[in-house]
Amino acid sequence: MTLTLLRSPKTIPEQIADTCGVMIVDGSFAAGQRMVEQQVAEQFGVSRGPVREAFRILQKRRLIDITPRRGAHVLPISLASISDLFNVRMALACLAVRTLGERDREEAALEKIRVRIETLAQIAANEESTHLTFGLGMTRAVHAISQASGNDLVVQLMREMNEQTLWTTIWRKPLDYATPAARERRATQMRTVWDAILTGETLTAESRLRILLEESRDGALARLAATRRFEVG
User: Fold this and answer.
1) DSSP string covering 160-196, please?
2) What Rg, from alpha-carbon coordinates, does the chain have?
3) Which CATH superfamily is domain 79-227 in?
4) Which of 68, 88, 188, 206 is the 20 to 30 Å CA partner of 57?
5) Backbone angles phi, psi at 65, to 5 degrees
6) Which has the closest alpha carbon to 185: 155, 159, 216?
7) Under CATH, which architecture does the 12-74 domain have?
8) Can you list the residues of the chain whose pLDDT is less than 70?
9) Which stretches make up the HTH gntR-type domain (predicted)?
10) Are 27 and 229 in contact (CB under 8 A)?
């Protein structure tokens, strides 16, 4: 099977890593399976160099393990580990909202949140939007909240989770944002979070965000469980 790379702002290794990552999550590459550079290079029609870099990205995301003389092997994924990832991000996002309510708020930072929330609503209302564009919009909205909080550690940890876990990989599948109705609901919920932030109702904003993220987690896990058999634990 030959896989096609698209025109994208991402590098070729990043595109290969994204595609292979989705194949690992959906079970096309099984836990323990060896991934051979030459075979993957032939599938994508590239040299082994970009594949080698893609493997390093996958290793950073904890999707494969690379050992000398043994090569790259797919690591097991469990629903519990994915749930943990959701829960940690939820805790960080809620902490950002709480911190935002406790500290002096900069108007420029609040304006950035407003713009992100408005953009999210526009994406949800666009019939041609996809789960990918909405997922990116949601990530940017939550990131704007974390930045506005002034909590540099939260911002750093959330960025590292994007780069060094399978978080961005799992959202390349439809999951919680699969339908227009689901995207509209999440956009509306984010609007209510913003309304509470704007009026200084910190506990309400945190509670609304937690409910949104819990629902999103449960919906995503249910869809993942329906697509493949995961490791236990």
Assistant:
1) HHHHHSSHHHHTTS-GGG-SHHHHHHHHHHHHHHHHH
2) 19
3) GntR ligand-binding domain-like (1.20.120.530)
4) 88
5) -120, 135
6) 216
7) Orthogonal Bundle (1.10)
8) 1-8, 231-233
9) 10-77
10) yes
